[in-house]
Amino acid sequence: MKSVLLFTILLFSIQVQSQTNEIDAFWDEVSRTVAEGDFEGYSATYHPDAILVNGMSETSYPISQALAGWKQGFDDTKAGTMKAGVEFRFDQRLHGETTAHDSGIFRYWSQNEGEELQVFIAKFEGLLVKKSGEWKMMMEYQISQATEEEWDSLK
User: Fold this and answer.
1) pTM, full prediction
2) CATH class of the structural domain 2-153
């Protein structure tokens, strides 16, 4: 009986790690698309019905509206007139077979040619769903700005 329990725990652990690896790959893809100015790839990380919730402006709207506002930055990055990047650190990760909720802090930076580096750090939550074998963001909640100290605390 003990060996069956241990085997069950091991299988569950392997399944959870596999889901975490898949979701880590999702966040890596988001980072890649920002750094390369790959607007189509970045857009594809969202479910078509995704919502952006902005706690700083106390609004929410379809991700298509947010993407339209971000497109120029992607175009500039792809053209080489701007550099950009984003990193993620997490304080809570809740993963299931087809749903996931990650919360933490993201650090986005951009720098136009000949200008100072601009850094934006924010607390966020991401709600993801796995559809047709792919993870897609359903909701991005940018809760509030964060500090470098808060960022550093999440190594």
Assistant:
1) 0.87
2) alpha beta
